[in-house]
Amino acid sequence: MSGEVARLEKLTGLPVRDEARLPGEVSPHPKVDCYVVAPASANTVAKLATGIADNQALTQVGEALGTLGLPVVVFPRVNAAHVRHPAWKRHIETLREADVHLVYGPEIWPLYEPREAPAGRELPWTAVLDTVENVLS
Questions:
Q1: Backbone angles phi, psi at 59, to 5 degrees
Q2: Which of 8, 78, 88, 128 has minimal Cβ neighbours within 10 Å of its Cβ?
Q3: What is the domain extent for residue 70?
Q4: Would residue 97 count as lying in a domain?
Q5: pLDDT in tens for each of the 137 residues of the chain?
């Protein structure tokens, strides 16, 4: 992690916090205009769909689902076994009902059986960023 905080601060032009802000303390960050969860594990998708907010990131995104006009973009990085689970279809339907913008489908992320995906497969960052651009325009 050496140098990563400085790198993030340089990239964003914003300070990186590793401790919670105290009540009444001014935030140095702008208001959020979009949440992106990418790549999202099957576990993260399930928790988000069922309202489990057991960490700060899921709490923030879960609250965003109830905030009108605040888009949420999710890229599920899953395999064929995850998608065959009986609950998976309901999780995806729930997120769609919540107006989550899913970056999902065989043209985005072809499914493979566990441990059978090609080595070095690139994540679909262009599709994720295009989705963000579309929802913010």
A1: -60, -50
A2: 8
A3: 31-124
A4: yes
A5: 577 899 989 998 988 888 888 889 888 888 899 999 999 999 999 999 999 999 989 999 999 998 888 999 999 999 999 999 999 999 999 999 999 999 999 999 999 999 999 999 999 999 999 999 999 99
